[in-house]
Amino acid sequence: MEAGIVGLPNVGKSTLFNALTCSQAAQSENYPFCTIEPNEGIVSVPDPRLDRITKYIVPKKTIPAILKLVDIAGIVKGASEGEGLGNKFLSHIRQVDAIIQVVRCFEDPDVIHVSGQVDPIADIEIIETELMLADIQTLENAIGKAEKTARSGDKDAKVRVEVIKKCNEHLAADQPLRTLELNEIERAAVSSYGLMTAKSILYVANVGENDLEGKDPLVTKVREYADKAGASVVCVCAKLESELAELDEADRAEMLSEVGLDEPALHSIARGAYKTLGLESYFTAGEKEVRAWTIPAGATAPQAAGVIHTDFERGFIRCEVYTLEDLEEHKTEKDIRQAGKLRVEGKSYVMKDGDICHFLFNV
Ligand code: GDP
């Protein structure tokens, strides 16, 4: 799962991306299968449940879930017509699963704003418009081919044509596709087009050092806008975060308490992005390691096993599952088993957020 960070120039996007990824870079050794390009970084998703588990099962290593972030540079007004890095920018967005848009809410006379004044809603709308225009182009290119195939009697293509028309009407009414209700079949019919306004979005309001809680009316406007669009907002001061990222843990804790924050705002971005992507975690817990694994909400037990290794999905037999509450009540896995709380689940089991499991499989 990947989220792409976008934003107009000078909103603090690079500052934030560097802060997010610099404090986390050392952990990449735990994720050998994750190839990291220069404009990508992985961030861990802090999860207090890991601390609760390791109180009872003390491992050599604790490994949190991760998210891949991609820094997508280059959007300016006119990107859909090839302005700036236009097309390159758009092809990067097509590949990510969700979008994180950084909007500028900080005032600083030394940092020029591309449109002359700080206006986060205008920033959001510029990018949304470019993405909508690009989606319209994509659909225009697609419909001819889909209609031709539909005329030859292909049922799937007929559905595709109908969905393309539905999407076009929605975009023509100036609405992003994420607000268009489509059923599963309809969604699948257009999934290969990488429609950008259909991707979920998280807004990051980059606030000034004097407004860490985001009380500024500009931030309120972003929140109201996001509420209507069914999106979330996280407040961050990118400048402060980049300073925090460079400190060691003790100094970071001291600086956080000085400015009155409980944790780096980067943690809320990681969690916000995780939620925006519709992701959940399950855990594996043993003396060697306690680890969080990422699954889409609604994943079945074999799919969850497949996240650890594809062979686990293919050879899945069953899994043993317990909850964090079971662990807190009975203290050890042995006692959970004795109390009859260790559930045995089969192939059709739908994972619940926070399940702690062992998988049994054939190789
Ligand atoms: P990008 O073009 O969106 O990647 O923006 P940058 O991250 O390069 O930031 C542009 C300028 O704004 C840099 O000089 C940053 O130091 C400054 N900047 C970024 N975030 C903040 C912030 O939270 N407060 C203030 N005062 N300046 C910031």
UniProtKB/TrEMBL annotation:
GO terms for cellular component: cytoplasm. Pfam families: MMR_HSR1, YchF-GTPase_C. ATP binds at residues 10-15. The keyword Transit peptide does not apply. Residues 278-361 form the TGS domain. Residues 1-256 form the OBG-type G domain. ATPase that binds to both the 70S ribosome and the 50S ribosomal subunit in a nucleotide-independent manner. This is Ribosome-binding ATPase YchF.
